[in-house]
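Before we proceed, please read the two lines closing this message. Report back on whether the structure tokens fit the sequence:
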Amino acid sequence: MSKFAVMLYPDFSLQEITCLTSALTIWFGETVDYIASENKEYHSEEGLRVFPTKTTADAKITDYDCVILPGTINPLPALFDDTLIDFLRNGVNTTVVFAAISSSPALLSKAGILDGRKFTAGYFMQLADTFPFIEKENFIHRAVVEDGNVITAIGMFFREFAEAVLKRFQYNIGTHFMRDTPEEYTEEQLTFYWSENDYQEFLDELKEHPM
């Protein structure tokens, strides 16, 4: 099994990574660590309040096969978090796969991980003009870009981003990941049943809740 981590910082976007994290945990039984520079409450850009499972002091980046960076509507706190950037910088010239979406490729740029690599991002281009560590000549205006051990994506393509990461780790996700081709569904296709074992587990759990 591979080891995955998600980096947390102020105003991180859950919706950009939950296709990926739900597939990893629910479909494939992986455990995901949530790492931040401080052991404190972080608010997602959707307003959810979360705590990391580890801090950067508790982990080494090379403990992980893949480090996932969600976008953030407010990238400056993360960009100027030296502890976070130093943690990422320790992944330069390693085999760790970095998967960054939306604005978060800027963090990889500052950490030196994108030096000489093609990438995409969902931030406004003025941000790239502002920071000299962003190599604009390597910016590719595509939904998802893969270059070596780095996968980057624009935020609106969160499904394609998840698909690229899962394929990189050779998970069997079929040909229509989190979508189907028919535009019309039959009644049978929209009728769902538990397996006998799953239904029995539900009934056993129900006994713990007086009705």
User: Anything to note?
Assistant: Strands lie at 4-7, 32-36, 42-43, 49-50, 54-55, 66-69, 97-101, 144-147, 150-153.
